[in-house]
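Page 37, continued from 36.
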């Protein structure tokens, strides 16, 4: 526990916290090392789903198991084991996570994301937040069958282990994933990035306009590329 002083132009007070306040110093001995030569962007994760990153591995696994279940009947239960760092963000069973009523709450609800992935797959995109899905009794029913458990043994923060019980024939199935799609360990293909863009702008631009924007972005690395032309398309 740290005690530190917070000062403003009008008052000073002491506060306590588990972490020290933000520092203006740089710990690295070479803060400018590689500047202008190394790009950090390629190592930045790309999110395939419009939801909190802590839910992504579970979305993938749930959609996969659902697609391989012949009857597509709802499982009796789905247990999701998560890293401790993510539990309070997406797993603590508060009412707004169990049955979210807003898009933001749904984005940060493991219960909702698992239910939506089972019923609608992992390619549903922003359609997961359509009112018919947010208000679906079937989604709500499945949310109640999801349990989120802290697992101290998980080594990676986005790692999950899942148990699906009561599948076809009453069988159970266990699955796990360490790195969700889009992490540096599981790169996102260029075409999938383009597909994500198309999905995000579908309600804003027609197909021809979207393709023109993509082409303009591609040309930025060429001599004929023009940021001005790209901006005109947006």
């Amino acid at each position: 526990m740290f005690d530190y002083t917070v000062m403003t132009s009008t008052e000073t007070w002491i506060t306590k916290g588990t972490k020290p306040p933000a520092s203006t110093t740089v710990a690295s001995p070479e803060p400018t090392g590689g500047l202008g030569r190394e790009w950090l962007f390629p190592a930045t994760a790309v999110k395939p789903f419009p939801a909190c990153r802590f839910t992504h591995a579970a979305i993938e696994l749930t959609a996969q198991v659902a697609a391989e279940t012949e009857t597509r009947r709802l499982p009796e239960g789905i247990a999701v084991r998560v890293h401790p760092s993510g539990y309070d963000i997406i797993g603590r069973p508060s009412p707004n996570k169990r049955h979210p009523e807003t898009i933001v709450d749904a984005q940060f609800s493991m219960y909702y994301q698992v239910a939506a992935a089972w019923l609608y797959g992992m390619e549903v995109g922003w359609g997961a937040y359509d009112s018919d899905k947010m208000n679906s009794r079937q989604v709500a029913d499945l949310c109640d069958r999801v349990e989120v458990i802290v697992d101290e043994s998980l080594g990676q923060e986005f790692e999950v282990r899942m148990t699906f019980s009561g599948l076809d024939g009453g069988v159970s199935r266990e699955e796990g994933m360490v790195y969700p799609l889009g992490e540096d360990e599981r790169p996102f293909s260029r075409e999938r990035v383009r597909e994500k863009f198309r999905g995000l702008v579908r309600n804003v631009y027609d197909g021809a306009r979207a393709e023109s924007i993509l082409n303009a972005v591609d040309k930025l690395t060429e001599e004929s590329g023009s940021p001005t032309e790209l901006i005109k398309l947006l």
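The longest strand covers residues 2-7. Flag for discussion at group meeting. Residues 4-14 have pLDDT under 50 and may be disordered.
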